[in-house]
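May I ask for a protein sequence together with how it folds?
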Amino acid sequence: MSEFEIAIIGGGPGGYVAAIESAKLGYKTALIEKKDLGGTCLNRGCIPSKSLLKSAELADELFNKAKQKGFLIEKITVDFNKVIENSKRNVRRLKSGLDVLLTKKDITIFDGKARFIDKNTLEIKSQNDKKIIKTKNIVISTGSKPSFPPGLNPDGLLIVDSDFILDSGELPSNICIVGGGYIGIEFAYLYSSFGVNVSIIEKEESILSSLDADIVSELKKSYKKRGIKIYESTSIELKEIGESSVEVELLSPESNEETNTKLAKYDKILISTGRIPNTESLNLDSIGVLKDNFGFIKVDRNFKTSVDGIYAIGDVIGGLMLAHKASEEGSLLINDVIASNKDLPNSSLIVPACIYCQPEISYIGITEDMAKAKKIKYDTVKYPFKANGKSLATDDMVGFCKLLVDEDKKILGGHIIGRGATEMISEIALIMSNDLTIDSIIKTIHPHPTLSEIIFESALVLNNSPRNF
């Protein structure tokens, strides 16, 4: 029986970072992964989808903007199978790099599914054998998986989830995306760029309901111009599955006035209605690890569960389900909590988030509605992309940067929509994470012409010293 000081269950961004940090500090470390190292992010999420979205941007440029920029292209054909293969090739490259990285570290990697026997003992079961290991500390980083509404379970043919989409070389003539969160929004842009008719069905009052209202409004305008149909406050019910299409009933205030229903047929239905934690096979109840009503593992501010020596990080504890958040939690847990026995601050991490549609969206901190609800005094600015030289030069004038600052000129929230937004948010995150003010932005020389000047100019406006606006 092998013995370790730290065992990590789950080889995604949280788990493998925790394993690397643990090995760097000299702990005898085990990393257990039941499927693919890199987790959902590398294999079925962040990386393959961003590769596909880059292809979608290129298609968008060719189909919709090439003529405007002086390119007269008579005919464009798309081999979507090659688009998919390019995405898979990029995943293989990163997987190979991760394998090499972990091999260099003194980490014992187990291929199999972990199950608790007691709080210091794990059974690891693979297709061919079963192993038992002992360990002083255990980190649960098993991530999450798609959840599906009743009556809409994927069949892998007509009703599918995002995993299927990442593998399929098929472009349907139309698609219904159930769920207006970030996954649904990204796939809506993806398919629309390749000429597919897209409908988004969202049961809440608005798509992206947790985002700043101005950002969502701008995205809706952009999607409407693209021909994407958005049904909000709408539920969906399966009526009939045919050989090549699915008939559904949509129930919403905007539907037929007499029946409040609308019948529609789609070639494909993509379910993107959220995610649930991967905990069912861990045998947590037998050792007393507590979960909330949704199945997420309960932890304190130090990622400690209800059982001494057992910790949890990433999607499995709920909150923002983001790879970079899980990675930071893994690093903090190993370096500060386990190695240094520190208490982490009560305040939550300042985590930027990104949505990779076009126009791109990024955000951090609180929204204006949150500030109003909490009765926080604030000042705000919305600086348009069309006032920026780089945006004008590249014909990317849709969008704005919105900053909220308090009375001390510290940033409460930053919200950006427009091309390049996902690369711009880190400057705001840097200011917020280091408790700086907008004066630090103003004192920093921003190169011209760049999109970064949008943040600089936003800070100038908030400082009552606008230069180009």
Observations:
- The mean pLDDT is 94.
- The chain has three domains: 2-146+276-337, 159-273, 359-463.
- The chain has 14 helices and 22 strands.
